[in-house]
Amino acid sequence: MSALLVIMAAVFGGSTAAFLPRVAHRLGVAFGESPRATCASCGRDLTGWVRVGASCRCPFPYAMTPLTGAAAGAMLAVSLGPSPLLPFFLLAAVPGLLLALIDMRCLRLPDRLVAAVGLLTVVPLAVQWPPRIGPALVAGGVVLTTYGMIALLPGRGLGLGDVKLAAVLATVLGFAGWPAVIVGLVVPHLINGTIALTLLLARRGRPLPFGPALLFGALVALTTA
C-alpha cells in the first residue's frame, strides 16, 4: 500500500469535509422548508454555500468534521488501494458525511444526497463487476423490504430516509458479499443501541439519528470485508 496514496486520500477527505458545516447547517431543516438563511440560535447570516470553517459561533464540534473526512478517506485508500473505484468512493464520502451532519441536526436524510451516494458507488461497481449486480440488488431489496416494514410499525425508530439509505448501502455492500452486508447492518444497531442505553440510564432519552451509524457501519464493512 502506497503511503502517498493514503495521505492524498486523507487530504482530499479532510479538505472537502471542511466545506460541509455551513452546507449542513443551511440544509438542516424540516422536510419542505427552504434552506436556512440565518442560524436559529445566534442569528448569524448563513447566506452563501461555499465557506471553510464553522458555520456560526454556536457550540458545534467543527474540528471533528474534517478529521472524520480525513479518516474516511484514509480508510478507503487502505482498503481499495490504487483501484479505479477509489475516486468514486472518495467522492461518495462527501455527500455521505453531509448526510450524517444533516441527520444529526434535524433527523432528516435528503433524498438527493442519498441518490448521490448511490450513483457514485453502485454505478462504478456495476461496471467493474457485472456478475455481482444480481446479488447486490437482492441485498438492497431485502433490506429495503425489511426496514420498510419496521418503519411502518407503531413507535418505529426508523424514518423513510433511513430505509432508503440502508437499501442503497446494502446494495453497495452486496457487491462484496453477504458477510459485508451483515456487518454493515449489525454495526449501526450496536452503535445506536449502546447510545440509546446510555441515554436511558442517564434519563436523557431522545430520538437518535440513524444515518451516521448506517454510514459508519458501511465504511467498516467496506474496509474489513
Q: Describe it for me?
A:
The protein contains nine helices and no strands. With 225 residues, the chain is mainly α. The chain has two domains: 1-108, no CATH class; 129-225, no CATH class. Helix 1 (3-17) runs parallel beside helix 4 (86-106) and helix 7 packs antiparallel against helix 8 (178-201). The protein is globular and about 55 Å long. The mean pLDDT is 89.
Ranges where pLDDT stays below 50 over 5 or more residues in a row are none
Q: Can you give the helix content as a percent range?
A: 55-70%
Q: What spatial form do the alpha-carbon principal axes imply?
A: globular
Number of discrete helical segments? 9
When the domains are counted, the total is 2
Report mean pLDDT, rounded to a whole number.
89
Structural class: mainly alpha
Output the radius of gyration. 18 Å
For the report, how would you describe the main beta sheet?
none
Write the H/E string, N to C.
HHHHHHHHH
What topology does this entry show?
Elements: H1 3-17, H2 20-27, H3 64-80, H4 86-106, H5 111-128, H6 133-151, H7 160-174, H8 178-201, H9 211-224
Helix pairs in contact: 1-3, 1-4, 2-4, 3-4, 3-9, 4-5, 4-9, 5-7, 6-7, 7-8, 7-9, 8-9
What key attributes describe this structure?
225 residues; mainly alpha; 2 domains; globular
